[in-house]
What does this fold into?
Amino acid sequence: MSKFKLVITMAVFVLMLTACSGTNNESGKAENKDKEVESSEVEAGEEEVEPAEATSVEITDIHGTVTVPINPKNVIVLDNRSFQTLADWGIELAAVPKAVMTADSPYVKDEKVQDIGNHREPNLEILAAADPELVIVGQRFANYYDDIKKLVPNAVVIDINVDVSEETETPGENLVKGLKDNTVTLGKIFDKNEEAEKLIADFDQSIEDAKSAYNGTDTVMGVIVSGGDIGFAAPGSGRVWGPMYEIFGWVPALEVKESTSDHQGDEVSVEAIAQSNPDWIFVMDRDASITGITDKVPAQDVIDQSPALQKTTAITKEQIVYAPADTYLNESIQTYLKLFEDLKEALGK
It folds into this structure.
């Protein structure tokens, strides 16, 4: 082979090697690019995977921490502070104590909802027959907590009672915190957290408004009218009105020793109430929401027709506020919200 041909052959060989090297480089780049795309797709896929929805939630009742199923089936509620909230949220219930509920409650009207009766003679066997996942105890039925747990051992039983009795030192704080905490609890259990937050925000605002409307010096008298009689609702422990002295800083027109949270009020004479000459009288009509009372007299008539009260400042200046008619059987957060709005309206005039 001539020297010229040898040079040509070697040049061709070098060109072939260079081409192969370029092809390998391009292939490598393509492979790397494909791997990057695959990696990006995997990462993107991982970001799109949503976590599984929780099926239970931990709540704290007065006995401790309890794990409760979210949106449980066959729910039984025995707490008068909860019915309106659950009804407003459209929650179905298996059984309730219809005998101590307002007649216009959708649960009372619904024949499919079983009646456990009142707290004095409840038909607790209905609980066992209903095979509930959850039983909510509170207020009038709080004393049955242990009995119910034994009766339905497979159910979750929670106790959301709020202590505003004469034994507690902070009835106002307990009432406000209890109503708010219980609303949060119900929101978690029935997946109504946004609704619960809105309700609590409105409730907080109503407290601030009513507190701002009070001048800090006018004297206040809370009473409960039942069976045509006027009972004294003691500051602190008195039913409905008692805790509000702490919440709003009211000045009591009258204080007595050994007062109670009796549902009809303490036996203090109307004359003693009149002699205290309250600037304001706040009234709860116990009989207004109770069916079956044939001879009930409206609280307003009782107050208007009481000779002893007619010369008091509250009467002469028409400074009287009546709690919503269903308050005795419906001490829900909505009831207090409405009541606080009424107090703001009256006190702010």
